[in-house]
Each structure stands twice: as C-alpha cells, then as structure tokens.
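Q: I'm building a small set of examples for a reading group on sequence design. Run inverse folding on the following structure and report the sequence directly after it, with nothing in between.
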C-alpha cells in the first residue's frame, strides 16, 4: 500500500506529525518567567504596605523599592538568558526536523511526543524530540544545539572538555526504554528502539560514533545514519501498527 500525502498524491518524502520546537518554546516561556512573577508579587505587597496609609517609614519604603528595582533587573536578565537557551534548543529541533523530512516515503517522523504518556506538549524528562519509524527500524532522537568543542572519548561525552550536568546519553536511553514499554503494550509487538543523540550545531568533532548503546552524530549525518542502519529492521505490518499507535496519540 502506497502512503499518500495530504492532497491524495503519492508521497515522495516521509510523513511528518507534530511541530518541532513547539514543546521547547512553551516550556521555556513557562519555566523562565517565574522569577518575574515572584518580583511582581513582592511589588504588590510593597505597594500595599506603603500606600495609601503607609505601614512603614518612607526611608524603609524607599530602600525596599531600590532593592526591588535591582531584583526586577536581575530577574529579567535571568529569564532572558534562560529563554534564549530554550529558543536555541527549539531552533536545533527545527534544523534536525528539516533533515528528517527528507527521508523516503516509507518513513514516518513524529516531533515533540512523550515517552510514557500521550503525545504533544507533555512536560518532564520523558519527552522525545523526534521519533522515526521506517523499514530500517524505530529511532528515538534527542537533539542538542550545543556550541563549543564536542567530543566523545572512552564512552564519555564532553563539551569544551567538561561533562554536561545532565548527560544526554542517559537521557535518550531512559526515554527510549519508556517508549519501548508503552509501544509494546499498545501495539502488542516486540520491538527494539535505537536511541540517537544528534547535534544540530554539527560541532561533534569525530562524526558518527556509538557510545553506551547510543548512536551519536551531527545533524548533517542524521538521514544517512538512519538509512544505513540495518540491525533492527521492521516488517511492513509492524511498522504500520507502530505508526498508527503514535498517530492516534498525536490526534488526541
């Protein structure tokens, strides 16, 4: 059976579900604004204490307003820097998504789904940037848009010579395990998932590598990594069943 595009014509490229970067942007807005919310609450308290009948002396009120102004500036700067990091991550997901969209029509690509619950815009460490289903297998892709010198040595990933505080290799393996359990239960099939760590910045010096059970590559290598992988192929029946399960989750 030939997959069809939205206009009913035979599809040339992979079917795509979800929107890359959407979850990251929403999470960024939610997680970076809490310092400002705290400052706003303190501002309201201070104004209530100072006006219309002062409950504190003018000197104390003035000093507190000065401290509050400094807090506003610090909170705004903190939120701006954190939001920029989230937006950079979202942009990285979009770059990788463009590459994945060029996979052949026998593949389906899902963006921003959850490993152990329902699909779009889930919160928490089980979120998956991209899931790819095709004849070559099922792949979970964690995208990082990191700068600096990225290197793998003795199975350890370093950025500018330092290990990241949240190891992405373990992150993508945990998410893959959770998704495997959910899909085996929902689809009733025994499957293997190949976790991939992909750097949208193309800053990984050593190119494609395997580390701790994870394939690691740059974004400009992601499609070739998937197409050339033949260790866990999927039958047409299994592939279609997995696509249906993931698609149903996305449509809920």
């Amino acid at each position: 059976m030939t997959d069809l595009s939205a206009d009913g014509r035979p599809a040339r490229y992979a079917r795509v579900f979800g929107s890359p970067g959407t979850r990251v942007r929403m999470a960024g807005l939610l997680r970076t604004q809490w310092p400002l919310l705290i400052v706003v609450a303190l501002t309201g308290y201070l104004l209530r204490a100072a006006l219309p009948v002062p409950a504190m002396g003018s000197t104390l009120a003035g000093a507190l307003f000065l401290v509050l102004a400094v807090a506003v500036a610090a909170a705004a700067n903190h939120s701006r820097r954190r939001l920029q990091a989230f937006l950079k991550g979202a942009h990285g997901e979009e770059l990788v998504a463009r590459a994945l969209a060029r996979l052949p029509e026998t593949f389906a690509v899902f963006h921003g789904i959850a490993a152990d619950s329902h699909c779009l815009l889930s919160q928490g460490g089980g979120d998956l940037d991209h899931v790819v289903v095709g004849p070559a297998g099922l792949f979970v892709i964690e995208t990082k848009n990191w700068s600096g010198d990225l290197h793998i040595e003795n199975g350890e990933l370093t950025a500018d010579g330092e290990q990241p505080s949240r190891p992405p290799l373990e992150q993508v393996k945990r998410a893959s395990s959770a998704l495997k359990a959910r899909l085996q239960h929902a689809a009733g099939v025994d499957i293997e998932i190949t976790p991939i760590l992909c750097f949208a910045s193309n800053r990984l010096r050593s190119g494609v590598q395997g580390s701790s059970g994870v394939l690691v590559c740059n974004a400009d290598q992601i499609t070739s990594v998937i197409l050339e992988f033949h260790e866990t192929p999927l039958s047409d029946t299994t592939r279609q069943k997995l696509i249906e399960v993931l698609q149903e989750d996305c449509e809920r």
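The first strand starts at residue 15 and ends at 17.
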